[in-house]
Please model this.
Amino acid sequence: MGTPEFAVGTLSALVEGGYNVVAVVTQPDKPVGRHGSVLQPSQVKQYALEHNIPVLQPVKMKDPEFIEQLRSYNADLQVVVAFRMLPEIVWDMPRFGTFNVHAALLPQYRGAAPINWAIINGETRTGVTTFFLDHDIDTGRIIRQKPFDVPDDANVEYVYDGLMKLGAELAIETVDAIIAGNGNVESLPQEDMIPVGEELHNAPKIFKETCEIDWNKTVKQCHDFVRGLSPVPGSWTNITLPDGRETVMKIYKAQKTDRKAEAPGTLHAEKNHLYISASDYQLEILEVQIAGKKRMAARDFVNGLKN
Model:
C-alpha cells in the first residue's frame, strides 16, 4: 500500500526479490492539466501495471466493496509505505498483520513530512523504521530501524533518495523476520524507546504558509529551513524589486556566511552575489525562482537587476 516514488522503492525490492505480491493498493488517479481533464496514475500504480500486479484504488478505505475485494486476496501480510491512515478493519486483516515503513527514527518525527522536518530542525542523523500499525498514527510497536547520516548541506532530495533505498532494505529484512517467525517477530512499544527528558518532534503536513522563511531566526536555522524544503515544495520570501514591485522569491539553495547581518530580511546584491540577512549573519542565496519565471542561479537574478 503506497502512492509516491518513495513507496516504489520498497515495492520493486519485493517484486525483484521474488516475494509474492498479490495486489497493490494506491490512491485514485489524480486530475492534472489546466482543466483537470487528464487523470495521472500514481507512481506505485504505474510500477504495478508494468509488472501485471492487480491494483485497488479505493476512495474510502472502509468501502464495503473494497474491503471484500481486499479480503479476497487472502494476503498473509500488508506492507504500507507513504500511504494514508488505515482503519482497523484493513490493518488487522492479514494473519501476520500490517507494518509501515516510516522515513524517520520513531518515536521521533511522527507525521506526514518526517524528512522535511528532520532537516528543518538541523538533525545530523535520521533513518527509517518499520512498525506494526495500530489505532493511532505512527505509534505502533517498532520492529526494526536503520540510521542515516544527514550532511550539513544535504537537502530533501538527497535524504529522500537515501531513505528510499534504506527503507526498501529494511522492509525486506522485516518481511524475512516475520516469515521466519511465522508471524511472530520481536517488537518494542515506542514508549520504551523514549529517553527520559527527551523532547519528541512531530512532522505535520507542510502547507504553503509553512514554507515562508522567518528571517528573525539565525542564519543556520534559515539555511536548514531552505534545505528542508528543497526542491519540493520550496521555501519562499517576499522581496521588493528595484522598480518597487513586490514579488515572491522561492529559494532552493543557499549557504551560510559570516557576513554581519543588517536588519533581518534585508536583501543585498553585490558583485553577482545575493545575500539576505538573518538575525545574526547573512545567508548567501544560490538558486532562486521568481514568480512567473524559471528556476535560476542567483547570479543570473542579480545580473537581471542591473539591466
About this structure: The first helix runs from residue 5 to 16.
